[in-house]
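Notes from hallway chat w/ T.B., transcribed later so I don't forget. T.B. wanted the structure written out for a chain they're using in a teaching module, and asked if we could keep both sequence and structure tokens in one place. Agreed to drop them here.
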Amino acid sequence: LVTGSEDGTVRLWSNYNSGGSNREPQLVTAWQALPEGSVSSGRSTFSSTGGGDKGLVMAWHQKSQMLAVAGDSRIIRLWDAERELRVCDLSSGADYAATCLDCDQSAGSLLAAGYADGAVRLYDRRLPPNEAKVYTYREHVQGVTYVNLRGDSGSLLLSGSGAGDVRVIDTRKHSTAISCQTSQGMTSMAAHRLADIFASGSMHQYIGVYSLNGTALNVIKYHEWFMSSHFAPVTCLAFHPLRSHMAAGSLDSSVTVYSVEPKR
């Protein structure tokens, strides 16, 4: 388990899923992932641009054990987590803080970063660090909430902003393949790695589930009646990598897990 803090520190933990045993989580290693002053405070949950003050943002590539980190900095720093060595610093080419980050899960060559000004930038880490930026997409008018590289070697780029607009971009043609609108005031978004679905959460106590072509599949929202479940503004979403499970974190520090599978 890897965690990032607003001071730019990254920590790696083991035994975080003890399976009912009494073993405590163990800190394996920790280091300063970004230079001091390169990470914003992270104390503001929602910003006027919709992207939020995210502080340190990270992306993990499982096969190569690579960790990419970014923040309020002009670089995206790549780390070899297994050897605890810095690989390189990619020039971001941005004047605004990074709000989200992702890498393709096949070769891990492509990186996508969303920024507070609404821009999404695509990077190729096989190129020299100062020339790694491949393309800049300006599809959003508010801060980018989420980016996700999908398809073969990151051929599709999914992104969403605080205005609720979602784009699916063909990175080979650098053109928008699908455009749709979700709820205004989007604060979080997540996509399933295998299924073509994504979910968006908002500060209005609302979670929408959509297919990748923009069709609304389900809505989870707060209802003021007896026996209704408590539902606070959503701050983060995550899908299980294999199963049809979704976790939602809320502003009241609660975590709720949703599933379409019957209980056993």
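Follow-up for T.B.: The CA atoms of residues 79 and 86 lie 4 Å apart. Might be a good example for the class.
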